[in-house]
Prior knowledge:
Blueprint: H1 3-13, H2 22-29, H3 35-50, H4 54-62, E1 69-70, E2 76-79, E3 82-87, E4 90-91, H5 102-113, H6 117-120, H7 124-133, E5 144-148, H8 154-161, E6 165-170, H9 174-180, E7 187-191, E8 204-209, H10 219-227, E9 230-241, H11 245-248, H12 251-259, H13 264-286, H14 291-298, H15 315-330, H16 340-350, E10 355-359, E11 363-368
Parallel strand pairs: 5-6, 5-8, 6-7, 8-9
Antiparallel strand pairs: 1-2, 2-3, 3-4, 9-11, 10-11
Amino acid sequence: MNKNHTQVHQIVTDHNKCILDESGFNKLVGRFDIVYTVVKISHTTYEWMNEFNMIMKQFLSLLDDDKVSLSEDGQTLTFKGHPIPVRNGVPRFTPDESYSDGNFAKLREEHAVLQFDSKNGTTDRDQTISDRTTWPKEFWAGKTVLECGCGAGPDTEILRNWGAKVIAVDLAGSDIAKESLDDEENIQIVQGSILDLPFKKQSFDIVFCHRVLQHTPHPHETLEHILQFVKPDGAVFVHSYARTFIQMCRWKYALLPFTRKVKSEKLYNFVKGYAPFAMKLTGTLRKIPGGRGINHFFIPFLNYRHAKQFEPLTDERVMEIGVHDTFDALSPPYDNPMSAKDMRLIAEKHLKHPFEIEERPMVTLLRTKVS
Ligand SMILES: C[S@@+](CC[C@H](N)C(=O)[O-])C[C@H]1O[C@@H](n2cnc3c(N)ncnc32)[C@H](O)[C@@H]1O
């Protein structure tokens, strides 16, 4: 990196003091001894800036290090003095982690891609986020969102479609997300942990965390951590599985201590093996009085055939989703639902903005109020 680039870098990352705005430039022009340098810097700045997309620049400005630097080739970020590799446009704050290994990883990745509304022909994600946040879609437009645990990015896609700029963080699956969401203007995928986010506190318009909290080792600490990144007048949406009787007495919490020890591929094939029978059984039980309760508490299979959002899909596809979701329910290393009471206590500590907690039978939702 030559001297000019070093200077330019400081200008670009120190976003509060950008000397290239017109008024700043005019002031400097009065001082003839430095006009030459200024012109040289500004020329190089534009060249340098053009190499990186808009959202990457915004991402750099949000990092909690005013001296952060990105190498000329864009492959290494120096953050708090440490080199952070940037591959495939994704800064990697944590080691590479796939959803799983070998052939099985491929299968999982294919499924991850099929979660996208744009790819599966449903409006499942769109409707779920609208229903759970209760915010109007227009609310998202122009907002900078910290998405905690984006997975393959099916929600990221929706938030972007509603006009948000999304900084989407996850430990795993960054390359799948990047491939599916190649939007250099509005989405920055970041490989990192939501237990140790590298951003400035109180810097995001919205903190969004959907279907992730219970999968972290200590959800209370995770929630405390992520809430620090919302602006004082910003908005928050956090989802957790509910710590209710109807949730905690389900088959999965009885089976998880055993199934999470089974090798992923073996467990997946086992679920796939009994899926046709389980589809029929749950379909039949659903039609008899009390059968829905039996399905819910005792039959380890998620049959979505009756779900409105999956109506357009074939039986085969519904079964495929059921296999994957049942596998997902039986395999995570952590599944710790949070009580509404605990969520409220943590929110009260961190949020200045009015918020509400909604405890539904299966999920607990924290959201700030939008007027
Ligand atoms: C059930 S998936 C949900 C993904 C996405 N929000 C969605 O709705 O499709 C849970 C995600 O949380 C991520 N996750 C778990 N612990 C994490 C952590 N400490 N930091 C970042 N992501 C994490 C997992 O890698 C996984 O992608």
